[in-house]
Amino acid sequence: LCILSLGLSCSNADSDTQINEKNSSTTNNQAKGAPSIEDDIDQLFYNFVNSYEYLESKKLVLNFNNKFNVSISESDFTNAEEMISWIENNIDKTSFSSLNEAKLEWNSIVSLTEQKIVNHPQLFEFIKITDAKITKKYFEKWIVISPITFNDDCDRERKDCEGRVLSNYLTDCLQAGFYTGSARAMVMAYADLSFDRGMAACGSSYRS
After folding, report:
1. What digits encode the pLDDT tens for the residues 175-204?
2. Residues 73-97: pLDDT tens digits?
3. 13, 47, 82, 166: which could join 17 in a potential S-S bond, CB 3.0 to 4.6 Å?
4. What rounded mean pLDDT belongs to the chain?
5. In the 3-class helix/strand/coil scheme, how is 54-115 assigned residue by residue?
6. Of 105, 8, 121, the residue nearest 65 (C-alpha)
7. Which of 20-29, 155-164, 168-177, 187-196 has the lowest mean pLDDT?
């Protein structure tokens, strides 16, 4: 309904607006005002989203995703190894100057992700052992950036889209918990890339 009746406002925005929308999806929480800290878990998330490793990782993830230059779906790749292979075979479609550059940037993201896990063990343990419905509420409060201002069909469809992306992300986070060390960091880093792409797609498809 949103795409059919409100197509001009939701799906036909110009490319500059789409780029701005993607950037806004990865802005840190301070841009929308810091959420209130109401319990110990809020404090864990506050410390996390204001840490150097989190903020720097967000920048690198955004930059990395932007270099693909084309829309990516699960039919292209579903994990880090397949992603690197895709880049190697499609380097001319991307903004990476070489496969080596892509690998270096990816390794930097994985390294920062490992720092996040090491420096915030209580948060990642909470994510691992807590019911997803509870975890999702904290992620919606501290992680999901959604500059929605109107309550129309586009907004509702966008929020539904973001909800699906977040649910998939939480599933990926739980799966990452079965790994340790650098392997866990790689799975989490790939989950971060997928989350960023998914949220940007929601913003581009359902516009207010």
Report:
1. 999 999 999 999 999 999 999 999 998 888
2. 888 999 999 999 999 999 999 999 9
3. 13
4. 84
5. HHHHHHHHHHHHHCCCCCCCCCCCCCHHHHHHHHHHCHHHCCCCCHHHHHHHHHHHHHHHHH
6. 105
7. 20-29
3-state SS string for the chain: CHHHHCHHHHCCCCHHHHHHHHHHHCCCHHHHCCCCCCCHHHHHHHHHHCCHHHHHHHHHHHHHHHCCCCCCCCCCCCCHHHHHHHHHHCHHHCCCCCHHHHHHHHHHHHHHHHHHHHHCHHHHHHHHHCCHHHHHHHHHHHCCCCCCCCCCHHHHHHHHHHHHHHHHHHHHHHHHCCCCHHHHHHHHHHHHHHHHHHHHHHHHHCCC
**What CA–CA distance (Å, rounded) separates 204 from 154?**
11
Distance of CA 40 to the CA centre of its chain: 24
List of residues 6+ apart from 83 with CB closer than 8 A: 77, 106, 190, 193
* Contact (CB, 8 A) for 150 and 208: yes
What is d(CA 31, CA 135) in angstroms, rounded to the nearest whole number? 22
Q: Which amino acid is at 195?
A: F
Which tokens hold the place of 24?
């806004």
Q: Which residue has the tokens 């498809």?
A: 205
CA distance 208 to 13: 10
